[in-house]
Amino acid sequence: MKVTLLVVGKTNDAHFIAGIDEYTKRIRHYLPFDIEVIPELKNTKSLSEEQQKEKEADLLLKSFQPGDHIVLLDEHGKEFRSLEFASWMEKKMAMGLKRLVFIVGGPYGFSQRIYQSAHEKISLSRMTFSHQMIRLIFTEQIYRAMTIINHEPYHHE
């Protein structure tokens, strides 16, 4: 199973980039993983929030492949403890999915079309984080899940 993190807009902060790159490299020790970046919309001042979400949806939908299992990182999704997330990941790996796609939306969230295309929603916290920070936190959690699944000492509980 390949895991893809699909994000809207680039990460600009060098500290976040370094951390994301480090966890991406670590994750790839366990399974194929990549981050796909959908370019940020330009000239959005004349667009409403809903129009921006719809334009982002057009770009996101083009990135989907047949058979993808789509999981939105969304504030209204299911929350997991790290051990629970690792168990969830292990079940997805056992299902024989071709590609598991996690999506971080743009600044206003997702359009209704993206919610309808998704199979599941996961929340990383009830708190709000920047989109750049979410990428770092989530890549670390995928790495943590892989170490838990493989009974390695990274996670302490």
Number of helices: 5
Q: For this structure, what is the CATH homologous superfamily of the domain at 20-125?
A: SPOUT methyltransferase, trefoil knot domain
Low-confidence stretches: none
Name given to the CATH architecture of the domain at 20-125 = 3-Layer(aba) Sandwich
The helix fraction, in percent, is 40-55%
Give the overall silhouette.
Answer: globular
CATH topology of the domain at 20-125: Alpha/beta knot
SS-derived structural category: alpha/beta
Computed CA radius of gyration, to the nearest angstrom: 15 Å
- Major β-sheet annotation: 5 strands, parallel
Query: Based on DSSP secondary structure assignment, what is the total number of beta strands?
Result: 5
Cα distance, first to last residue?
27 Å
Q: What is the level 1 CATH name of the domain at 20-125?
A: Alpha Beta
| Beta content | 15-25%
The strand line-up of the biggest sheet is 2-1-4-3-5
Summed over residues and divided by their number, the pLDDT gives a mean of 94
The ordered H/E elements are EHEHEHEHEH
